[in-house]
């Protein structure tokens, strides 16, 4: 084997794949934070999420309850039922 040949030809490919995985993970983390932030600040957005993706809203409620923040679910249901009446 000549000294110029790489001992590990998959090294650059593996690095590119690893960088890609890290970028995708960071986008996922920032996307999840942005979604949480929007749900945390907008009752109307939570209503939209309730209609389109109720399981995502349930995760939001549970994460707040696990963090010791209670009453958001009840306030939302009261506000939404008042709008329907």
From TrEMBL:
InterPro entries: CEBPZOS. The chain crosses the membrane at residues 20-36. It comes from the Eukaryota. Keywords: Membrane, Transmembrane, Transmembrane helix. This is CEBPZ opposite strand.
């Amino acid at each position: 084997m000549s000294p110029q040949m790489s001992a590990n030809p998959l090294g650059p490919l593996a690095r590119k794949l690893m960088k890609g995985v890290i970028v995708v993970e960071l986008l996922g983390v920032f996307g999840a934070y942005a979604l949480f932030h929007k749900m945390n600040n907008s009752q109307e957005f939570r209503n939209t999420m309730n209609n389109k993706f109720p399981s995502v809203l349930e995760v939001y409620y549970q994460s707040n309850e696990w963090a010791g923040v209670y009453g958001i679910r009840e306030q939302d249901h009261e506000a939404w039922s008042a709008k329907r009446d």
